[in-house]
Design brief:
Blueprint (H helix, E strand, L loop, with lengths): L2 E5 L6 H8 L5 E7 L1 E7 L3 H7 L3 E7 L6 E9 L1 H10 L4 E7 L5 E7 L4
Length: 114
């Protein structure tokens, strides 16, 4: 069974993919309805070293279907999903979502709202 991971942020960066998964991931464009994007300050040294960005985007649920976040969906392995979990800081929580394409995927959203 395929495991899909939706990304709207730094997991799309080649450097982050190579250091997190050991390879570049194949992606296709998709969108996450019912969410808006804000930013969160990252203080974790490992994540800062990989992303080279102090502020990362973070998805906030709105419940409004007209809101959406554009991004990409990756097909990954179960082991790679654990690597993605390790990369994300405690501000994020992984949830299952239905994307605009109809695919069911994992994504990381604000832990504050879920």
């Amino acid at each position: 069974m395929a495991i899909y991971l939706f990304s709207y942020g730094t997991l799309q960066l080649e450097r982050v993919q190579l250091e997190t998964f050991g390879r570049l991931l194949h992606s296709s464009k998709d969108a996450l309805p019912g969410f808006k994007m804000e930013s969160v300050e990252i203080t974790d040294a490992d994540v800062l070293a990989k992303s080279e960005q102090a502020f990362h985007p973070i998805a906030i649920p709105t419940g409004n279907i007209v809101d959406k976040i554009d991004g990409v969906v990756f097909e990954i392995t179960a082991e790679e999903l654990t690597h993605a979990d390790a990369y994300e800081v405690s501000s994020y929580k992984r949830i299952s979502v239905t994307l605009a394409s109809g695919k069911t995927a994992w994504t990381y959203v604000s832990a504050e709202y879920v």
